[in-house]
Amino acid sequence: MTTGVPGTSVRPGRRLVVASSVLLGLSGLARLAQVAAEAVQEDTYLRAHEQVGTSSGFAALPMVFLMAVGLVVALTALVVLALALANLAGRNWTRIVTWVVGGVTVAVSAGWLFLTLIFFAAGGDDTPESPDGSRVEEVAAHLMPGWAEPVSTVSGFVASPALLVALVLLALPSANGYFRWRRGEQDPSYPVKAVRPDGGHVPQQV
Questions:
Q1: How far apart are CA 96 and CA 184, in angstroms?
Q2: Helix (H), strand (E) at residue 194
Q3: Distance CA 129, CA 143 (A)
Q4: pTM above 0.85?
Q5: What residues contact 24, with CB distance under 8 A and at least 6 apart?
Q6: pLDDT tens digits, residue range 5-58?
Q7: 6 DSSP β-pair partners
């Protein structure tokens, strides 16, 4: 005996969930592109330090930190991509995991942006550079691929808003029916109107 109400073979809220998955995929790909571009930038600066002849320890610690951050971001982006596909199966636990992972990611991104704005507002970029530092910047600017900085900037602006909108779409009431639908049966809390032969609707019993 089934408790579900006979329903249509098309899941309710399908377009909403598909749109959310597309945005999740866009966010994940944007983060991977950002990580790749920033890895190229970091490698370029290391090569610039080598050409100028500065101490290897001058940039080693910041680069190791940035590489660790990049690894975490890349792994998170892969998880988001996996969730974008998993949500299409309509399992509610994948939606919950998406909210948790996406919520933490958006919060961390917002915090990082806030700290960056405070750093620049406090004049953190106005410290005088040493002659070696100026030379490193010149060499790095010469070695840097032209696509690295635009890709890093654009992907950074795309990733977080796309992820936030995807989370909002998954939280809309219209998406609930998609995750409660099972094998042509619909959750009783989302009744389907019966249709008479003449095209009219049969009133639902409450």
A1: 23
A2: strand 194-195
A3: 20
A4: no
A5: 80, 81, 83, 84, 87, 98, 102, 162, 163, 166
A6: 444 556 678 899 999 999 999 999 999 999 999 888 888 888 887 777 765 555
A7: 185
